[in-house]
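User: ok so my PI wants both of these folded by tonight, can you help

Assistant: No problem, let's get them done. Here's the first:
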Amino acid sequence: MIDGHSIEYAGCVRGRERDRLLGGARALLYPIQFPEAFGLVLIESMLCGTPVAAIQLGAVPEIVEEGVTGCTVEAMPGFTDTVQRAMALDRRIVRREAEARFSAEAMARAYARVYEQSALGSAAL
């Protein structure tokens, strides 16, 4: 229930305002009901040190490291417990792990590895 105190609808936010809201949140709630291909908001949250509580659909299992950067559940029943578990995670570890996987530098290194492997594979043809 959105009550304006413990839960407040912020609408569309960007940049510094988004980072302030995510960084000040105890957890990002992500109760999706369809398999989204890539959840950028999950990464944005984790880079702010905010753990994620999410339904295991779409890219969620690939992005959220269970018990480290967030907690997930298969369906809505049990989501409340998942939120509680996520809020107990160490925010410093959430941020550190997100930076290790999703910082610009980490992503550039990962893309370079894929390109190198692709080039080596095509050279064998």
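One down. Here's the second:
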Amino acid sequence: MKHFELKWLENYTFVGKTPSGNSAIFDSWGDNDTNPTAPTPMEYMILSLAGCSGMDMVAILRKMKKDLEDFKIELEAQKSDEYPRVWTEVTMKYIFKGKNLDESSISKAIELSQTKYCSVYAMFKRSGVKIDHSFELTN
């Protein structure tokens, strides 16, 4: 078992501590609809999906000896209208730049991330979230 901790700071703000000793601030819409000062737990879930798959992309493309110069993932996500307001759809757009990158290698890396390595992706899919993806190779 791994030990995590979440401590309330003020209003709707919390700090989480992980087994690795790292911290993350969480916030939410508070009273009077004040804007969060940090990502909400649900926003962290979408960022975790991108982070997990993104780290896979870097690792896989490096193993393929590809020279990745720049990389980002843009996401759009939709929640259900009813409570609990869970994520129902996510669209991921992978955007790559590199000298010897090719569409075949990128497609293979995405497939490996989404079917074998990314545990966050697997959790979303097992929960019934529809995930679509595309990619772009830029110069």
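Helices lie at 41-63, 103-117, 119-126. The radius of gyration is 17 Å. Good luck tonight!
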